[in-house]
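Hey all, sorry for the wall of text incoming. These are the two entities for the joint prediction.
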Amino acid sequence: MEASAAGDFDRRNSSWYVDKVVQALVFIGGISGILCILGIFVFISKEGFGFIANTIDIKEFFTSPNWRPTSEENPTYGALALIAGTASVTGLAMVVAVPFSLGAAIYIGEFARGKTREVLKVLVEMLAAIPSVVWGFIGLSIMNPVIIDLFDVPVGLNVLNAGVILGLMAAPIMTTIAEDALKAVPDHYREAAEAMGATRWQVTFRVVLPAAKNGLVAAVLLGVGRGFGETMAVLMASGHSINMPDSIFDSVRALTATIAAELGETAVGSDHYQALFTLGIFLFAITFVINLAADLVLRGIRKEA
Amino acid sequence: MAESASNVTRTDAIETDAIKTDAIKTDKLSLWYGNFQALFDVDLAIKQGIITSMIGPSGCGKSTFLRSINRINERLGYVRTRGKIEVLGHDIYGPEVEKVQVRKQVGMVFQRPNPLPLSIRDNVLFAYRLHDPQHRRKGKAALDEIVEKALRQVLLWDTVKDRLQRPAGLLSLEEQQKLCIARLIPVQPRVLLMDEPCSALDPAGTEAVEELIWELRGDYTILIVTHNMAQARRASEECIFMLMGKVVEHTDTAQMFVTPQHEETANYIEGRYG
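and here's what came out:
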């Protein structure tokens, strides 16, 4: 009797095996994300780094606005105009998106009640799911004539158009993240402030926003990352012409759009092909840094809370 | 100046014992959370300047009653109230009444200390800044004085005077709870509502906060909800026993614990249920 009772302690039933299998599957799932990122990094590095080391002049890449990779006699690879294009469009997009998204998040998180709140949340999430080519189409066919009419300029595909489109595109996802940050503020802070006689706005402005500061910064950073990485809508709405923008009515070309438009027409392994991969490395580095920054900022809140 | 004068008159009123007017008076107060009725025709008159405790088993409506008096219950959105609550002679559910002004007069201390995620100094000044639009014109010295006075009154000044700029969340629970009382003082509320203010504290903290509450009586009308009958007995002057949303008994604390008038009260006090 005693022996069999003791023997029971090392019995492995089906739950034990299921547990082990699930652990293994989950581990593979988790590790594959990291492997994919590493794989992408290795791939674009392999294609682009040789070019960076041998052919390209780093100084020219960052300071010259002349992107002429197809020139027969003297191809130049200055990415400054492309960087300026991406930066100007993203900058304007943030000017549009930050007030919209923070305002929407504050309304949904702190002011709206009951049904209104639920409906708004669903709508915002639906907005986030609109494909970028649809936004590009709106830029091309609606914003373009509107800008030409309104500002009396010859071309409506420019920084303004792409910036507004990109801003509207980034706003929903920023709203969702910002609202999560507001929701993470413990309710007893609001209750304490209200019990002292604070109005809804005073509670929001003096207690909730300072407490959610990190999450809101992270929301904006992720929006910036989205702006840098967005391709299709920017390609369609920005005019896609190489230009150092002087005003918001100049057409520009973005880093991402350049890769998308030119990669299909280059010979694999050519200088031009490798130059595009160099742009890719640059973009990857920037979005990586932005996302890392957002992540670190977000971690900051959790530590405090 | 004005503040010390009003303190004197209030203290006088208590000493003469002649005009113990009611600070809080309810008339047939009923309250529903959705379809659930939590209070049934509660008639209570809570005297000014003394400590009144409310006891009763969980779910008897004592916290609900407390939270109706500064209308903080309304945050939930699905609360309906019938009847009347008068605070200092004003019907606080009157159509012209501003909740903000009610809450200026009626301060609240919560079960879990809930300092705001600000510095100690900003916590003490939070309510003051809300209610005094002129506060920006006051110099730093004037504000410092307010902070010191409030913190001294809650016996916290000596422990925190060197770290007023540090986050309030770093204080111990007992200190946090004292801070939550201190931040009410600069706006000079007339009534303090305390919802089990010691239940998150250890015995030493409980004793310290109880002593503080005892010190504050006279200046403030204090209504304190507690789970702890010993606390009600030693730290209040009048006691209310509630059961199932109704008031069973309301008398002097000493009398309630020695010669309760109702059987339910006696049973509860003796620990037969609850």
